[in-house]
Amino acid sequence: MNNKIALKLTLYFSAVLLVFALIIGGVFYQFFKQQTVEIKEKEMRLRAEKIAEVLGDNMARMESRHGDGIANSKFISYLDNVTQEIVWVVDSNRQLSINKDRVQRQRREVQKHHEHSGFGLFKRQMPPIAWKEPPKTPKDAYERLPVQVKEKVEDGFNGKEFIIEEYNPMLDGIMLTVGRPIYDSQGQVKAVLLLHSPVAGLQDAIWSGLRILLISLLVAMALGMLLSVVLSWRFTGTIEKMKNIAERLAERDYTARTNIKQNDEIGELARTLDILAERLELADAESQKLEKLRREFIANISHELRTPVTVIRGSLEALRDGVVTEKADVEEFHEQMYKESLFLQRLINDLLDLSRLQNTDFPIEKAPLNFVDVMHDAVRSGRQLGADKKLQITGSADKDIYMLNGDYGRLRQMLMIFLHNSIKFSPEGSEIKLELAGNRLKLIDHGCGIKEEDIPHAFDRFYKARNEHNKSGSGLGLAIAKQIAQRHDMQLELQSKLGEGTTIIISLPPELKEKEYADE
């Protein structure tokens, strides 16, 4: 297979891992970004609350010491350093108190960040810098705030908290801004706190998380791909083994086995392949056996045909050449040729009968008949055949009538084949019995018996026992009897012991009921 399946599986696994990594990365980015922003907002809200409380508690003192809000810049600078955030305060006169040094430093940091980052998760198209010069007064600083921020500041003076993400022209960057009212001791809103945090800081935090995730995913993908390669090779290894076994089977090596033990579809396929190999091995052995029997059969038939043909030819040559002239000798030669021709006719008829019976399209004329009559008819004919050997052939039945559908002539032929074999192999003066009890007919003789290893092959088409009693047999009789039995739905069983005798048991089909044959 040139490892094509292993390569495909590796590519499939890699594609799945890549898609999985992209999905995990995207989901992680969304949740991590949201979580980071939420945490940052929560922290800023908490800081804004604390700063607003501090400013509210010190508002009266600062106003008594300084005439306007901008004078609070020192305290604002202190809060910047303590909170690490950018703190602005808008008082009720709409004056914006800021730490100018922190603003300039923050502008430089933002510009430096943009110069060194070609892209960003929060990067937006920046508008032109609105504050090329720092504001001169707190009032000027407030007036330069974006309209949206001013609107939010007014909401703050109405007692509302707010949080916005917006470009801040003074800080020259996108800022996350939390606004919170500052209350005096009487609960009146005296100012609004604006707490700024650069979004770039969030971006850096998120990128740090994404870098860790990216490295983890790359390591996981590398290990996953390595594992996928190992698993793919292991998976295709069993398929490769089964392919080799199939090739060996195609080359008629039926001893090949996969020996794969797995409780999955591959294991089932391997077991099926092993079963196929076993059946092919059995079929091959059976085929070789049949081929051997066929060769023996052809050799026997050739011998059987050659013998009578040789006798007939020799007799005709002797008569033609005048070698035999005496009338008695001529008649003897004629008789011998006649007997040989009868043998040839019987042999040919047996071959034709077997061929016809094996053909399922060959019709058998079945009609309701009394099988007991068939048995007694065969017994009478058998007595004549066994008269020369003084055999006692008897037939008995537990009932006078056993009706079944069948071909009378073929059933009689089947019984005569069994009787003929029993007569042939029974010693002189012995007994042969046919006993019908229920639906089982037994034919019992006391002949020479059959070897145990020969019993399974007794009904084979080309099988012929070799002994002094069966020199003239063709090996077709029992095969014909088996075909007749099968065409009549009968079962045959052969029991035999060498030197003691043979019993053939015929299991008949169910007896017909009277209404089934009364109208025939």
UniProtKB/TrEMBL annotation:
GO cellular component labels: plasma membrane
One family name in Pfam for this protein: HATPase_c
Membrane topology term: Multi-pass membrane protein
Iron-sulfur among keywords: no
Domain HAMP: 233-285
EC number(s) on file: 2.7.13.3
InterPro entries membership: HAMP_dom, HATPase_C_sf, HATPase_dom, His_kinase_dom, HisK_dim/P_dom, HisK_dim/P_sf, HssS/ArlS-like, Sig_transdc_His_kin-like_C
GO terms of molecular function: ATP binding; phosphorelay sensor kinase activity
Alphabetical list of PANTHER family matching this protein: SENSOR HISTIDINE KINASE CPXA
Protein name: histidine kinase
Natural source organism: Phascolarctobacterium succinatutens
Organism lineage: Bacteria, Bacillati, Bacillota, Negativicutes, Acidaminococcales
